[in-house]
Design a protein that fits this description.
The protein is α/β, with parallel strands linked by helices. It has helices at 25-39, 56-63, 87-90, 116-127, 153-156, 162-181, 212-226, 228-231, 339-359; strands at residues 14-19, 51-55, 78-82, 94-95, 98-99, 103-109, 132-137, 186-188, 199-203, 239-248, 252-261, 263-265, 269-274, 277-282, 285-289, 302-305, 307-309, 312-317, 329-333. Bound molecules: guanosine-5'-diphosphate (GDP).
Length: 360
C-alpha cells in the first residue's frame, strides 16, 4: 500500500480490554474476533501478531441499524485489539507519557458491578491517561431476558418485557453510583449528551453477541472524533513496544512488537532495551500470520512482509534479541548521529519497565 505524504490519514486505534477475573474479557474478545471473521471479505487478513484487526467496513455493516444514534462515516481503517486482556499485560504497553493503548474497554459483569480488579483497572487507566468505556457484560443473565443473538443492544432492549428493562436500569444505576464514588460521571451510552464528560456504559452479552455492534461503533466513533491528533498517521521511522520475547524454531530469538507510529522496514536499524543494557541491531525479517488463518499464531503459519505500517502487531527477527526486554520501547534509528540520544531515552524509559517487572 502506497500512501501519499499529503494525504491526511488516520491509523487504527489500539484497543485494550481490562476488568475483573471472570467478568468476560476473554469471551468478549473471542466474540469480537468471531463476528469479524464472519463479516469480513474472504481472504482479508484480520489476525496480527498479538492483536486482531477489525476493519471499518465490518463495523459499518454491524452498525447500520444504529445509524440514527451513532452516525458514523469512518475515517479510521478499523480497530486493532490487543489479544491478551488484563491489567498485568496492559502495564507492558507503556509509551512515553502514557500508554500505547488509545482506548480501553473495561468489562464489568453487570450482575456483580465493580470488583477489586475493576477498580485497579480504572486506577491504572487513569494513571496512564487512557480513556475508557464500559462493557456492562452478561445482560443475558438478567432474569426474564430474551436473547436475540447478535442484535444491537438498542434493538434487543426494545424486545424485552418492561420489568426486564427496569431490572437492567437498576443494575446500571448501581454501576453508575459505584463509578460516581470513584469520581466518574457515567451513563448508558444512548443517553449521553457530552462524551467528553461522561463514561459510556454499553450493555452487552459476550455470549449471545447482543450489544457488540453498539460497542464497536462507539469505540470507532469516539476514537476518530476525540483522538484525531493522536491517530494522525506518520510515515516516519517506526516506534513500538515489545510485547513478548520468544524463541521461534527456524527464526531464533524474535520479538513480538506493537507498532504505534510510523513504518518498520526490513534492514532498518532498531534500538531497544535489553536485560543487560541497550541493544542495537538490524531487522532481518518481519512476520505476520498467513491470510485465511484466524487461529492463534503457531510456528508454521507466519509469512514474511517487507514493511509494516502503524498500527500493527508483528513478529521481528534480528540478531542479538536473546536479552530483549518485554515492555521496552523499540525505535527505528534513521539518523545514526542520534544514537546517544535514543540510548538515553530508552534507559530512562526501561527503568520503569524493570520496576514493574520486579513487582509483578
Ligand atoms: P475473564 O476471566 O474476564 O477473561 O472471563 P471469561 O471470558 O473467561 O468468562 C468467565 C465465565 O463467564 C465463562 O464461563 C464465560 O463463559 C462466562 N461468560 C462470559 N461472558 C458471558 C456473558 O455475556 N453471558 C454469560 N451468561 N456468561 C458469560
Amino acid at each position: 500500500m502506497k500512501i501519499s505524504k499529503t494525504e491526511k490519514r488516520l491509523r487504527q486505534p489500539i484497543v485494550v480490554v481490562l476488568g475483573h477475573v471472570d467478568h468476560g474479557k476473554t469471551t468478549l474478545l473471542d466474540k469480537i474476533r468471531g463476528t469479524t471473521v464472519v463479516k469480513k471479505e474472504p481472504g482479508e487478513m484480520t489476525q496480527e501478531v498479538g492483536a486482531s484487526f477489525v476493519p471499518s467496513y465490518v463495523i459499518e455493516k454491524l452498525a447500520e441499524p444504529l445509524k440514527k444514534v451513532i452516525p458514523i462515516k469512518l475515517q479510521i481503517p478499523g480497530l486493532l485489539f490487543i489479544d491478551t486482556p488484563g491489567h498485568e499485560y496492559f502495564s507492558n504497553l507503556r509509551r512515553r507519557g502514557g500508554s500505547v493503548a488509545d482506548i480501553a474497554i473495561l468489562v464489568v459483569d453487570i450482575t456483580e458491578g465493580l470488583q477489586k480488579q475493576s477498580i485497579e483497572s480504572i486506577q491504572i487507566l487513569r494513571e496512564r491517561k487512557v480513556p475508557f468505556l464500559i462493557a456492562a457484560n452478561k445482560i443475558d443473565r438478567i432474569p426474564g431476558w430474551k436473547a436475540n443473538n447478535d442484535l444491537p443492544f438498542l434493538e434487543t432492549i426494545e424486545k424485552q418485557r418492561n420489568d426486564v428493562k427496569v431490572y437492567l436500569d437498576n443494575l446500571i444505576y448501581n454501576l453508575v453510583s459505584q463509578l460516581a464514588n470513584l469520581g466518574f460521571n457515567a451513563e448508558r451510552y444512548d443517553r449521553i449528551k457530552d462524551f467528553t464528560k461522561t463514561v459510556a456504559i454499553v450493555p452487552v452479552s459476550a455470549k449471545t453477541g447482543e450489544g457488540i455492534a453498539d460497542l464497536l461503533a462507539l469505540l470507532a466513533g469516539l476514537t476518530q472524533r476525540y483522538l484525531e491528533t493522536r491517530l494522525r498517521f506518520a510515515e516516519g521511522p517506526a516506534k513500538g513496544v515489545i510485547l513478548e520475547v520468544k524463541e521461534d524454531p527456524g527464526l531464533g530469538h524474535t520479538i513480538d512488537v506493537i507498532i504505534y507510529d510510523g513504518v518498520l522496514k526490513r534492514n532498518d536499524t532498531i534500538i531497544l532495551g535489553g536485560i543487560n543494557g541497550i541493544i542495537i541491531t538490524k531487522v532481518r525479517g518481519i512476520f505476520v500470520p498467513k491470510p485465511l488463518q484466524d487461529m492463534k499464531v503457531s510456528k508454521y503459519d507466519l509469512t514474511p512482509i517487507d514493511e509494516a505500517y502503524a498500527a500493527a502487531g508483528v513478529k521481528v527477527s534480528a540478531p542479538n534479541l536473546e536479552e530483549a526486554l518485554a515492555g521496552s520501547p523499540i525505535y527505528v534509528i534513521e539518523d545514526e548521529s542520534k544514537i546517544e540520544q535514543y540510548k538515553k531515552q530508552i534507559e530512562e524509559e526501561i527503568k520503569e519497565v524493570r520496576f514493574y517487572n520486579d513487582i509483578d
